[in-house]
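Handoff note, outgoing to incoming analyst
You'll be picking up this chain. Sequence as last confirmed:
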Amino acid sequence: MWAPDSIDGAAVLRRNDADGFKHYLDDESWLLIRFSGTEPLLRVYTETTTVDRVAELLAIGASAAGVEE
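Most recent structure output, in case you need it:
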């Protein structure tokens, strides 16, 4: 399991593995890596404070999952 202490400079406050691997960050962002329940896909989701940070966190999540762009 991928369990970093920080992601893109923000500390990981807690994790939830009930539906994938969701990391809650100290800047009120979160990053979720999970398998789709209906398709053979891996999904990476995030919610954060700026548009630029969305792309950064999605790229970090994809890399952590072993997906190369």
